[in-house]
Design goal:
2 domains, homotrimer, 18 strands, 352 residues, globular, 4-stranded antiparallel β-sheet, Rieske Iron-sulfur Protein, 7-stranded antiparallel β-sheet, alpha+beta
Chain lengths: 352, 352, 352
């Protein structure tokens, strides 16, 4: 698998915050680079190349000692910046320049983000805003992780045109009025390199998620305002807004559910995929988290074989013909165009 | 796996007729090309490239609706010719030129055949004659399918020189007088690009299949007349004819058993292998089919590891030395020569 | 996997003597070459290319008949020199020049050694001396085999610097005073292209193996004299010598345990690894063999994932940076230098 078509100078989600502890290393390959994550003594996140510079043993097979990571092969210890603090067999003598490569890394909004490209360009202001999902936000939050052997843009396609719900997710997300998705126009705008799409479908049965808010009981059909945002390289957010059809609102942008998607390429042909769902109602219903996790897991389990089959079919296609766009693919096509432009920019700068 | 050494302008067996229904798609990769088979409303066979031209999802993950195949990702529908009849999210608007690539396909003799090469060359007269095996032929018919990771010519070798029965199939097909196969000459002729071999071995114990005919009870030793036919690229037929040794017949060409072999390359290194056996006796013995299927399955299970081991050994041979022929390989060598000539012909025409 | 960086003109361990019988062939791929081993009628070892020259079937799928190997596909028979003695379907007629490629092979010290390179250079005097481990040597001998997907020099590194015992083997071999290994200097000398290292650590707790000798009961702390020998391409021997610390011996080179390691590359990225342990005490304790096998097996099971992870990390490293040496790697670095020089020599001679 190559990695040359991937954008490097970005923060990528490496883990959920609670996956990285002070007790054990956490391994994650991103853009083809094996990385070990752990917490320094002060709880801050460290990310190092997962190859001990001595004999290239994975540091992630080691242990965390006093906030440093110790290689389990010969005991070399590295602090959170990759500086070697101990080589046990050398009576404490360290070797000048002997260090593990550090990556900029930080914790935000309940996630761990790692910067893969040039370290001096790592700007904390560029971290995607997931404030709506972090600790304390909303009434409830659930999430999940999937490893999917597909190019990350196939996931962007999938999320930017939801008409697949009527087919692929017929028995899960599509069980309530999915055919409505097939009608009506999607509006979208590209602004500051990001995409915002709005799909309004009027006078439809209540979806599973709308029903679960408890807000629309006895109100009959609803207008659906579905907002989808895309930020390169591969963050997406879905906002579900509803209003009674009888109100005939021009627009509603107050979501009762949000779903955020961090898509981190392992390579051109595989991703680490973290999804997070937040909601803003029925704080006393402890069962909601379970229900939301379950239906989302079932639906995404329907996406996985489709995405992986697409990837196989694209790789094996001798004609390497271009994809054809439906009308609903406007946003997906725009996302691909943004990524291509950014990639050309990175390549041009790399060539300078 | 490459496919460049494979003959393209031929009918290849894709499935047994009953495997392709009006209810569900059937996927088969032939000569490196993923193909989906299904039945149109009139029951005729449709074969399309198994890549939806929209996002390259396998159509075979979809469903059959009114004799059309519907992609399970976004609902695009294609008829048996690959013409798109519906894009649900576009309010019915189809896209000019948006179509799935169709392959010529037909049903004959209980099999489904697909033409891989130039569609305009697909001539129904070129379908291999399996009339002796189709519905209504003979007293009984059994068959099986195997996926074997070996070049198709290794299977042709195997079937054109049956002396392996004495070794590889010692405990199954070779249990009755296999050593006789090692004696005597095989005659063969090449005619119209096909091969016909005849091996006559006289005055031998009755084989398992001869015994099962019930025709030779009390007749002691038999003369064996074994006819093997080969048609390029890879169809073979074995005809088992016997006569009492006492009759001293010059030749007998009325088979009591026939075994047909359709060998369809998935790639240079793997085949889909369909075998079919027909017989002409004891119509009331319902047990025969079970017995014939069982011994054949046992025997072919002995072939599989040998063929796959050969393929590994051939691919990994740094010397890439040529195969050495025994006297019994005359027909196999002739088959390889025929294929090489046909391949040169296809290449020359492709270069025109 | 390539094999071009492997030394060819050497005896490599192919099997333990008892693994090769007169009853069944034994298959082993060495330096990328599939080889079948069997015993001729006189019990001597035969090693042939594991590809029948007829149709490249693996001879190892065949059977041994009268000290010859018979291909299980068409019955061709080859003697221990690879000469074809029978082609059954040709009424005994053999084909001039039709032969399986023979490899020089011999049995010594309880092992089977095969010479991969130019046959005329195969000199029995070059067989590694494992006299201390063969039948009748010492009080007891145990051994084991492992297949490890790692370059053979990573195993040499592992065995030439035992400080990993303090980390990787903390709970097995390192359970008794492993930290002592981290202290003190290792002396080594390169002589006749071989390496001998001596590590002396004084006044330490008794190791598991020292305790098991029964020689040092009530003697308190011991001085440890650990001798490690390396012979190219990849034979190593560890000698464990101890003396009471109170005796203050300058040197002790009488081992109570020896461990020999035959490391045979299957390719650049995998090895067949045979280890053999011999001891010289408590001949009546039948339990020792079991205990020694168990602890060694447990410890080597700790090495395996580390070695394979190193190999993955080295292969996948885009920087392909050189390994960094600790002080303890002096011997390992010397071994790599010896191998590189020998390899340059073989290449130069091959180019002549």
């Amino acid at each position: 698998m190559t990695t040359e078509n991937l954008l490097r100078n970005y923060w990528y989600a490496a883990a959920r915050a609670e996956e990285v502890t002070g007790d054990a290393p956490f391994a994650r390959t991103m853009l083809g680079e094996p990385i070990v994550l752990f917490r320094s003594k002060d709880g801050s996140i460290a990310a190092l190349e997962d190859r001990c510079p001595h004999r290239k043993a994975p540091l992630s097979l080691g242990r965390i000692t006093d906030g440093e990571i110790q290689c389990n092969y010969h005991g070399a210890r590295f602090d959170g910046d990759g500086v070697c603090s101990l080589i046990p067999s050398q009576e404490g003598k360290v070797i000048p320049g002997f260090a593990a490569r550090p990556y900029p890394a930080t914790e935000a909004h309940g996630m761990i983000f790692v910067w893969i490209g040039a370290p001096e360009k790592a700007d904390l202001d560029l971290i995607p805003d997931m404030g709506a999902y972090g600790p304390g936000a909303g009434t409830g939050v659930v999430g999940g992780y999937m490893y999917i052997k597909a190019n990350y843009l196939l996931l962007a396609d999938n999320l930017l045109d939801l008409t697949n719900i009527a087919y692929l997710h017929e028995s899960t997300l599509g069980a309530t009025g999915a055919e409505a998705l097939l009608a009506g126009e999607m509006e979208f705008e590209v602004k500051d390199g990001n995409i915002r799409t709005v799909r309004i479908v009027r006078d439809q049965v209540q979806t599973f998620f709308a029903q679960k808010t408890g807000k629309f009981e006895g109100q009959g059909n609803l207008d659906r305002f579905t907002i989808t945002n895309f930020w390169a390289p591969a963050y997406l957010e879905l906002q579900l807004c509803n209003a009674p059809a009888s109100a005939n609102m021009a627009m509603c942008d107050v979501p009762h559910h949000r779903v955020h998607h961090c898509i981190t390429p392992e390579s051109d042909g595989a991703v680490h995929y973290y999804w997070t769902m937040a909601w803003y109602h029925r704080p006393d219903d402890a069962n909601l988290a379970k229900e939301f996790r379950e239906i989302t897991r079932l639906a995404f389990d329907e996406d996985l074989p489709m995405l992986e089959a697409q990837q196989c079919n694209i790789e094996s296609d001798p004609a390497q013909s271009t994809l054809v766009n439906f009308e609903g693919d406007k946003a997906g096509a725009a996302a691909r165009k943004i990524v291509a432009q950014l990639l050309a920019g990175e390549s041009a700068r790399a060539a300078e």
